[in-house]
């Protein structure tokens, strides 16, 4: 489980499939009000406090993005910070209120900080994924988008390669098309290696 701060009141967790399996949680369980999901959320909040000093009390919005073959991203946004006197009226079960939304993507989107990372990833991906990929530039970063109609083993191998050069992103292709710049709209891996591989 990895956590990072996005803003003063927002953090993001990346939960791998292994993180979920260790706790006996399926993706569908994230919707359910069951003890092991509460336990996972408490562990996440403990880690956020330990690593980032991020504390929650009161309303919390939780967005869960299920990523194909790689786990999920959980974005936690803190609402109003209660006044200390509010705690007198709360018992332990009311320390925070959760509002959960779940989205599932049918694409794999990875973000790379620089063009060289994109080139190196493409070189390693070419034998696996010769076609069916797109690249966008958005907010000074590069986004490689793969459809998930490959067989699962191929997709998992591609994700493992991509994780070496970038990070899974919850930015949708629609946002990239609308606000980013299209660099390659088809067969990006093939084109990158054709022009930039030694």
UniProtKB/TrEMBL annotation:
Domain of life: Bacteria
One Pfam family this sequence matches: MecA
Stated family: Belongs to the MecA family.
Protein name, UniProt field: Adapter protein MecA 2
Lineage: Bacteria, Bacillati, Bacillota, Bacilli, Bacillales
């Amino acid at each position: 489980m990895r956590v990072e701060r996005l803003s003063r009141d927002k953090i993001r967790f990346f939960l791998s499939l292994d993180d979920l399996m260790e706790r006996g949680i399926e993706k569908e369980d994230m919707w359910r009000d069951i003890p092991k999901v509460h336990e996972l959320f408490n562990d996440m909040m403990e880690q956020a406090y330990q690593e980032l000093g991020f504390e929650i009390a009161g309303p919390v919005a939780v967005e869960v993005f299920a990523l194909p073959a790689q786990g999920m991203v959980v974005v936690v946004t803190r609402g109003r910070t209660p006044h200390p006197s509010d705690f007198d009226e709360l018992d332990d079960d009311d320390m925070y209120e959760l509002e959960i939304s779940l989205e599932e993507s049918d694409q794999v989107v990875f973000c790379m900080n620089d063009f060289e990372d994109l080139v190196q990833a493409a070189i390693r991906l070419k034998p696996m994924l010769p076609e069916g990929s797109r690249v966008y530039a958005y907010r000074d970063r590069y986004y490689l988008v793969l459809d998930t109609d490959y067989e699962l083993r191929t997709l998992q191998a591609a994700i493992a390669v991509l994780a070496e050069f970038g990070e899974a992103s919850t930015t949708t292709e629609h946002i990239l098309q609308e606000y980013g710049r299209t660099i390659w709209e088809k067969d990006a891996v093939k084109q990158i290696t054709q022009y930039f591989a030694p």
